[in-house]
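BUG: 3D viewer hangs when loading the predicted structure for this chain

Environment: internal workstation, default settings.
Expected: structure renders.
Actual: progress bar stalls at 90%.

Input used:
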Amino acid sequence: MAEEQKSRFSDDSKYLRRAVDEDRQRSSTGFLLFAIGLFLAWIPYILFVGDILLFIGLLMIFFGRNGFSDAHVRNVNMAIVLLVLMIIIAIAVAVFFALSIDSTLLSLNSGTITQSQALQQLSAALNTYLGALIVVSFIGGITYVLIPYALLERGWRTLLIVAFFIMVAVSITSFVLVSGSISNMISSAGSNSFATISANAQSQTTLYGLLAAIPDILLGIIYLHARSRIEWGATN
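Structure tokens produced before the viewer hung:
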């Protein structure tokens, strides 16, 4: 009887150990994909590939979270909640911006408003959109901090926090620069068509969006280090 009980406990221990190893391997792959996604997320035309890798990596990290400490499990769970909130806000803002632009164009084409008024409405909608992106960036930054935090040493945690503040600073800087450029273009609207100014606004947004490369690359390096910690056997 004692031997049977001992054998059963041994089997349970092997099963649990195997489950932990599988979770850790899943998380390791997830962190690798997430890091690659960060390296690609700021590059125009292929950023959607980075977004897909980020999503897959996050899923693997989530389903492999139980291979680590309670602190890591809690952080990943909180990150998922914040991610859902961020997606809801981003969709709501995008819909609002699209509807605002569509309404402005319809009013302009119907002659209800002048080109100058249309440009003012475009500026207001774009400023609202960019301001909301700062909020989205802030929430996303917290998510990026939470996911690897428990796996990192103190120095790397400090670097992670620095990357977060750089991300927020880039968002605010982009808002100020793009908003200022839009205002300058609108002030010279007399010599530019509505289509030309809209195209310039888009190019300005894309240009300053490249500033995101700074925190994204830094975060990618940090996530690769977190993966290496997993490979080395960190159990945090």
